[in-house]
Specification:
Blueprint (H helix, E strand, L loop, with lengths): L5 H13 L16 E6 L11 H19 L3 E3 L3 E2 L4 H9 L4 H18 L10 E2 L3 H16 L3 E11 L4 E3 L4 E2 L2 E2 L7 E10 L5 H6 L8 H11 L1 E11 L5 E6 L10 E4 L5 H4 L3 H19 L9 E9 L6 E7 L10 E4 L5 H10 L7 E2 L16 E2 L10 H14 L3 E7 L4 E2 L12 E4 L3 E4 L29 H4 E3 L6 E4 L13 H7 L9 H7 L4 E4 L7 H14 L12 E3 L3 E2 L16 H8 L1 H10 L7 E2 L4 H21 L12 H19 L3 H21 L6 H11 L4 H10 L16 H4 L4 E7 L2 E8 L6 H9 L2 H6 L5 E7 L3 E6 L2
Parallel strand pairs: 1-2, 1-24, 3-4, 12-14, 24-25, 26-27, 28-31
Antiparallel strand pairs: 5-6, 5-9, 7-8, 9-19, 10-11, 10-13, 10-18, 12-15, 13-14, 16-17, 20-21, 20-23, 22-23, 28-29, 30-31
Helix pairs in contact: 1-22, 2-17, 16-17, 17-18, 19-20, 19-21, 21-22
The protein binds one RNA strand of 90 nucleotides through helix 7, strand 11, strand 15, helix 10 and strand 27.
Length: about 800
RNA sequence: GCCCGGGUGGCGGAAUUGGUAGACGCUGCAGACUUAAAAUCUGCUUCCCCUUCGCAGGGAGUGUGGGUUCGAGUCCCACCCCGGGCACCA
């Protein structure tokens, strides 16, 4: 295969760009120009290095950044490293090295790889979440939350990963497995720091509507927050003082209640059991609680009768109270009303234990199909004065009645739970709190930040539920900021996600070495205009970051309600076998290898050419060669163009064709980049190269340097190295980054010839080509009558109707 | 089960948003160059039929079935399949 000297070219220009510490791509704080903030999701610098998925997103934002720079924007395009947390720590443990030594090496490797791709970052703003000058602010924001009562410590059954030896947030458990290592998680009762994200549930939900995000991500967040509006209803227990509160969204079915079910974790279960049944209930409850602790999920429904009865507040009917594992302790009140006719789970339970089924809602219209259960809204029956109402009206009316009796209240429930924020691990931001035997929990003073993570010998998780930091008594022992007496530091650390909650702001402070939280800079740069990254963070990073941002907004530390206006998810790049890339499958494509074989420019263009940015698509070791050939042809063409550089064109007219085509390309490229349709733009450039090559072979002594260099400018954001090299080869003096983006001439875009598709009964039968724009119907008819296909399809037939669309199509409708 | 996406040649994918389906790339085939191969260049490449082999003609075709329309890959209804997310959330 022919190879243009990409190694030499790429090395040469990367070195030139590196000069002056990459000042070429430096964003100018507070400049008068229009700003645009283009952000990538920063990587975890794992030991594996960059993968092709990173390259995809990072190339896309690089194209945008270079494009907007050439269009006169003040572009902020920074990069950093999310280096705290489990991936780095687990890798360090595996390699038996201290993360404190190891992580900087990983970062160095990532940085090198990013630079080898020619990505135009503002490297002076580079940050790492592990840098004390950075996590000083992570700790600072945490303390602000503490100050506002958003941080609390609570002992609760939480998710625990036995392999990572740490507690996890709900968001980190995917399908019952640890998000990082894939081990099945357990439930453990641990005392943990929580952050009250639930206080922001409503706003996190509402403000989604304003965001230019992919619909599926918004939907995932909506589902995760899981708002449901319903009623909490009190049921008396016959013969007991206690009352049972249940939560329901289907108050319209309350006449259909035939039993009450308590979660095994509900304290009432033992209190309201009939003495004859108590032993049985106790045994069941203990067993179920044990199972829950061990993280065992029973798919099989089980349950026991308590021997007691509740009283339906509306019709005073006595209904049995059960305890069952299908009722969650953590949602609503840990108790439900069982309506087997209108809820599938209740129905299954009733069937298993042979409980009564009463139907109180029927379909609104049509056939009253007598299926056993009907879960939709409909018309209420068998419900006293509420019969005949629609489900919606019934909910309202019944709610009113019960509320006036003090037996119900309208309640909004969220599925979202508070964020478990402490980790029993070493490699994270220390939580800046002190446990004082006299004063209780005392926060560190702001001036004492950062609280630096100490170097330890043994950083492996202890497995006791204690952080490794616990063993460093020197560090743990401290003085209480309040009473100055002896006290101990909190030894747990923050989760992986803490540092990434605000890093897009970190880049803005970077220019002052993170010393100041300069609101003018935030006012200028925020919000992020385009944010590109993988969809895997939909309910993790993206939810947490929105939460922190809203908090910062509330305490007037940021000027906007939302951090990221527009979000783009790049699709997954699959292995050549169409499967997800993984080491165990052996289908991983390493970007370093590709760069070695074809160069960074080919890699960049190929990844953009594979298909739409958002789609997942398989790697093809054949297709990338096509892209490489394209760049080789551009290179060869440049050589040819150079030969004619000194010639004077006798006939300017002949170039008109090139200019029209070029003008079109400028238009298509400009619009295509704005709309992130990179794959289409590249196809157009390939077509243009094809055209130009043919053109030049017919007009071999024409000087087209000027035209060619416009093409090179268009190519530049995609393939910066080869473009820059050709530019200077053909006499360009400056760096292309400083050049203006070519403008297109709207006049020239107007087509010279116009096609009229001629249809007969909607079928294409011919095309009329005219040089006249906007032919009238009669003119087109005239032209059609001269065509051979006219005789064949139209002449002598009865034309019922003619549909004529100006500039596009004429359709003859022929009758029988 | 529920909620989002999406089904277009041998493959990855285009299609001005209702107006010439298959751009561009890959693969394959043929040719040129070459002692030869590689590389490169040129042409063909949705399927089927007819053919006087002409740069000719006809038909079908965008997951399936129906509908709206002069005209549907694009809009509507039903179904099938694939991918992703959530999953005892009452």
């Amino acid at each position: 295969m022919r190879k243009y000297p990409f190694k030499k070219i790429e090395k040469k220009w990367q070195e030139i760009w590196q000069k002056n510490n990459f000042s070429l791509w430096q964003a100018k704080d507070l400049a008068k120009q229009k700003k645009i903030y283009i952000l990538d999701m920063f990587p975890y610098p794992s030991g594996d290095g960059l993968h092709v998925g990173h390259v995809e997103g990072y190339t896309a934002t690089d194209i945008l950044s270079r494009f907007y720079r050439m269009n006169g924007y003040n572009v902020l395009h920074p990069m950093g490293f999310d280096a705290f947390g489990l991936p780095a720590e687990n890798f360090a443990i595996k390699k038996k090295k201290n993360p404190i030594d190891f992580v900087p090496k990983n970062i160095e490797r990532f940085r090198k790889q990013l630079k080898s791709l020619g990505l135009s970052y503002d490297w002076q703003r580079e940050l790492s979440t592990t840098d004390p000058s950075y996590y000083k602010w992570t700790q600072y924001i945490f303390l602000k939350m503490y100050e506002r009562g958003l941080v609390y410590e609570k002992s609760a059954p939480i998710n625990f990963c036995p392999s990572c030896q740490t507690g996890l947030a709900d968001e980190e458990v995917i399908g019952g497995k640890c998000e990082r290592c894939g081990t099945a998680t357990e439930i453990r009762n641990l005392k943990q720091w929580h952050i009250r994200i639930t206080a922001y549930a409503e706003r996190l939900l509402e403000d989604l509507d304003e965001l230019d995000w992919p619909e599926n991500v918004k939907e995932m967040q909506r589902n995760w927050i899981g708002k449901s509006v319903g009623y909490e209803v009190l049921f008396m227990v016959d013969g007991f003082e206690e009352r049972i509160a249940i939560f329901t969204t289907r108050l319209d079915t309350i006449y259909g209640v035939t039993f009450i079910v308590l979660s095994p974790a509900n304290e009432l279960a033992l209190k309201i059991s009939h003495p004859n049944y108590l032993l049985n209930v106790e045994r069941y409850v203990q067993e179920e609680r044990k199972k829950e602790k061990a993280g065992i999920y029973d798919k099989e429904i089980s349950g026991v009768f308590t021997g007691s009865y509740a009283i339906n507040p509306l019709n005073q009917k006595k209904i049995p109270i059960w305890v069952s594992n299908y009722v969650l302790a953590t949602y609503g009140t840990g108790a439900i009303m069982g309506v087997p006719a209108h809820d599938e789970r209740d129905f299954n339970f009733a069937k298993k234990f042979d409980l009564e089924v009463i139907r109180v809602v029927v379909p609104t219209e049509g056939v009253q199909n007598f299926e056993e259960i009907f879960i939709e809204d409909g018309v209420v029956i068998n419900s006293d004065e509420f019969s005949g109402l629609s489900s919606e009206e019934a909910r309202e009316k019944i709610g009113e009645k019960l509320s006036s009796l003090g037996l119900a209240r309208k309640v909004v429930n969220y599925r979202l739970r508070d964020w478990i924020f402490s980790r029993q691990r070493y490699w994270g931001e220390p939580i800046p709190l002190i446990r004082c035997p006299r004063c209780g929990i005392v926060p560190l003073k702001e001036k004492d930040l950062p609280l630096v993570l100490p170097r330890v010998k043994y950083y492996k998780p202890s497995g006791t539920g204690e952080s490794p930091l616990k063993n460093i008594s020197k560090w743990v022992k401290t003085r209480c900021p309040k009473c100055k007496g002896e006290a101990e530091r909190e030894t747990q650390t923050m989760p992986q996600w803490a540092g990434s909650c605000w890093y897009y702001i970190g880049y803005l402070l970077k220019s002052k070495k993170l010393r100041n939280w300069d609101k003018r800079l935030l006012q200028y740069w925020l919000p992020v205009d385009v944010y590109v990254g993988g969809v895997e963070h939909a309910v993790l990073h993206l939810l947490y970051a929105r939460f922190w941002h809203k908090f910062l907004y509330d305490i007037k530390m940021v000027p906007t309600k939302e951090p990221f206006v527009k979000l783009v998810n790049q699709g997954l790049i699959l292995g050549p076998d169409g499967q997800k890339m993984s080491k165990s499958r052996g289908n991983v494509i390493n970007p370093d290898d590709v760069i070695k074989e074809y160069g960074a420019d080919t890699l960049r263009i190929y990844e953009m050419f594979m298909g739409p940015l958002e789609d997942s698509k398989p790697w093809s070791i054949e297709s990338i060669k096509g892209v490489f050939r394209f760049l080789n042809r551009v290179w060869a063409l440049a050589g040819q163009v150079k030969k004619n550089k000194i010639r004077k064109n006798k006939d300017q007219e002949i170039l008109a064709e090139v200019r029209v085509k070029l003008n079109e390309l400028i238009y298509e490229t400009t619009e295509g980049i704005k709309n992130l349709k990179f794959n289409v733009v590249i196809a157009k450039m390939m077509s243009f190269e094809n055209f130009l090559r043919n053109f030049l072979s017919k007009n071999s002594n024409l000087n087209i340097v000027d035209e060619f260099l416009i093409f090179i400018r268009l190519l530049f954001p995609f393939a910066p190295h080869i473009s820059q090299e050709i530019f200077s080869l053909l006499g360009g003096k400056s760096l292309l980054d400083l050049e203006k983006w070519p403008e297109y001439d709207k006049e020239l875009l107007v087509r010279k010839t116009f096609n009229y598709v001629v249809q007969v009964n909607g079928k294409k039968r011919g095309v009329i080509v005219s040089e006249k724009e906007n032919l009238t119907e009669n003119e087109v008819k005239e032209l059609v009558s001269e065509q051979t296909f006219y005789k064949k399809y139209i002449k002598g037939k009865k034309v019922v109707k003619i549909v004529f669309v100006r500039g596009k199509v004429i359709n003859f409708v022929i009758g029988e």
